[in-house]
TetR/AcrR family transcriptional regulator C-terminal domain-containing protein (Candidatus Dorea gallistercoris), 200 residues
Amino acid sequence: MAIDVKRLLAGALLSLCEQKPLSKITVTDLRQETGISRQTFYNHFKDKQHLIEYIYEAMIISEWKYPSVLNTDFCDALISCLECDVRYRSFLKQALQIKEQNCLQDFMYEHSKKFNRAWHQAYYGPDPMPEFLCFASDYHSAAQLYMRIEWILNDLPISVKQLAENIIRLRVVGLNDLFFGENKENSPYIEALKKIEYMD
């Protein structure tokens, strides 16, 4: 069975950041932890930051998938993402405090913006969304991510379910009329709200 080198390196980085600050971990540390060669590392990742982004995309927000945005269950994907935020909070806290160029926080905002644009465009239809709807999508994308980051960094006393429900309710209030108008009952946000209200 072939070794998944990316997963191997991701596991090594997550393990190492429990032992020493993430900012101090080097490619040499990762090589020693996994036994892979320097060339093998660079065959898979450009640098440590690229590996950090891989962990975020593959292990934390894996439910937010391209290109099948219409197949994404908003409630399930949001809950999964927030549960992973809890599971990997130590890693995320450290990664979010690294403020270099192309840092994780920038990557998170850019990914969220692109996904939300694609999500709303898919529901809007084949014509390009007007500028105001693009702004609305970006606004809610940034607001949702800002609250996630605050929750991660500051250990805000709110459960996964409550944070998810708050986000969904605000999307219903702020986006439902804009994107779904009279067709509200077919809105994925209404469906997400119904779903989360029945969760324990």
